[in-house]
Amino acid sequence: MENTKIGRPRCEKAQQAVMKATHELLNEKGGSGLTIEGIAKRAKVGKPTIYRWWPSLADIVLDVVLRQAGTDIPVIKFESLEKTLHEFLRQSMKATVDWGGAHLRFLIAHAQKDEDFRKRFRNNFSLTRRSVLLSIFQQAVERGEISPEQNLEILTDLIFGSMWYRLLIGHAPMDMSFAEELTEITIQITKNKSTS
Amino acid sequence: MENTKIGRPRCEKAQQAVMKATHELLNEKGGSGLTIEGIAKRAKVGKPTIYRWWPSLADIVLDVVLRQAGTDIPVIKFESLEKTLHEFLRQSMKATVDWGGAHLRFLIAHAQKDEDFRKRFRNNFSLTRRSVLLSIFQQAVERGEISPEQNLEILTDLIFGSMWYRLLIGHAPMDMSFAEELTEITIQITKNKSTS
Questions:
Q1: Domain for residue B2, yes or no?
Q2: B119 and B171 share a domain?
Q3: For chain A, what is the radius of gyration of the CA atoms?
Q4: Gap between the Cα atoms of A128 and A66, Å rounded
Q5: For a pLDDT cut of 70, what percent of chain B falls above it?
Q6: Are residues A71 and A154 in the same domain?
């Protein structure tokens, strides 16, 4: 992640240090102890500098997630609905367990207290993730694996909803069996519609 | 809600005043401005008295939700899976829109910052709600409307998950069409399994 290329603008290096520190602190301590002070200290950057770039603590975390998701989650080539969806869900579980769980829990909690941030989170994170899953479903429609009558928005709500629900409530794990079970039940839904 | 029966212990009256104040303030202003100070003022009760009964602000809100859900959401008599599930979902949407949305958003946000509270929320609210939906599904299994092979836990995750997801992200409404669409897709899932 660290780029030491000579001539890189100083502020970008500092911004990267802030994001790196935020990411590390979330992984080490979870979201409940995260503060601008702690990040500033770890990143060796002044608090006013941080506030110049980000309107709130949650916006730093959102940037970390967007950047990490961009580098960590590869674009999936469509094979069959089952294979592609399974791969998408495996990646999502892995990212959540490996590095993103504390980040996402922090973001959704903050979004409930700050309506402007909720919009930024929805537009920059949720709608982007939805569009990836919707495009998988749309490709399956084009190949006749899902009926054109299927409500894809509801299907997308079910998948992302159940993942958020497990992450937030914690009654069951975000693991590879869950990825498999979600794939299986989606295939069950789409098969019924296509043969009805 | 107010009970003026003579001889009722004084502390129970004060507890009810605290819960009533909390409920009103959440409906008027949402969760972001809710404080123990505000509740104490509205309920005409001292802050130390409140802290004697509840370990945190979120625990008052949880008590309000549990009490309200207990009186507001009637037990549903099982007819068919479709009718019973539809009624369950209509009631859940109605309770969320009419009075519970701000309460639930406040609770889930707090649960992300306080692991002990998260357990209390999970055990007292989520698992209770899950058991109601699971019992509807189990009755449908007994009547042959759902295959005994169907994974009911995943089905429950899909339903509650998608409702939480819409409530928290806010990309689409919690309305009666949503209750209908969720019923329809659940029937689609169960039909496929029972005929396969």
A1: no
A2: yes
A3: 19
A4: 10
A5: 91
A6: yes
In a domain, A38, yes or no: yes
User: Is the domain of A34 the same as that of A73?
Assistant: no
Task: Write down how long chain B is.
Answer: 196
Query: Range of A21's domain?
Result: 10-53
Question: In whole angstroms, what is the distance from residue B30 CA to residue B24 CA?
Answer: 9
With respect to residue A37, please indicate whether it lies within any of the assigned structural domains: yes
Token pair 């519609």: residue: A193
pLDDT band at B75 (very low <50, low <70, confident <90, very high): confident
Of residues B177 and A31, which shows the higher confidence score? Answer: B177
Which residues in chain B have their CB less than 8 angstroms from residue A155's CB?
Answer: 185
| Beta carbons of B113 and A31 less than 8 Å apart | yes
- Between helix A57-72 and helix A36-43 the angle, nearest 10°, is 60
> What tens-digit pLDDT sequence spans chain A (196 residues)?
444 444 446 688 899 999 999 999 999 988 888 999 999 999 999 999 999 999 999 999 999 999 988 776 677 899 999 999 999 999 999 999 998 999 999 999 999 999 999 999 999 999 999 999 999 999 999 999 999 999 999 999 999 999 999 999 999 999 999 999 999 999 999 886 544 4
Tell me if B163 and A161 make a contact (CB, 8 A cut-off): yes
* Cross-chain CB nearest to A165 (options B164, B170, B171): B164
One domain for residues B125 and B169: yes
Q: Does B4 map to a domain? A: no
Taking an 8 Å cut-off on Cβ atoms, the answer to whether A118 and B170 are in contact is: yes
Are B62 and B32 in a shared domain?
A: no
| pLDDT value of position A193 | 56
Q: Are residues B62 and B125 in the same domain?
A: yes
Query: Do A91 and A143 lie in a common domain?
Result: yes
Q: Give the amino acid at A125.
A: F
- The number of distinct structural domains making up chain A is 2
pLDDT on residue B129: 94
| Nearest in space to B192 (alpha carbons), one of B139, B149, B157, B138 | B149
Residue B80 sits in the same domain as residue B148? yes
Distance from CA of B141 to the nearest CA of A (A): 17
- pLDDT, one tens digit per residue, over B4-20 is 444 446 688 899 999 99
Whether B182 contacts B162, CB under 8 Å: yes
Q: Domain containing A144 — which CATH number?
A: 1.10.357.10
What CATH number did the domain enclosing B45 receive?
A: 1.10.10.60
Can you read off the two tokens belonging to residue B96?
């969320």
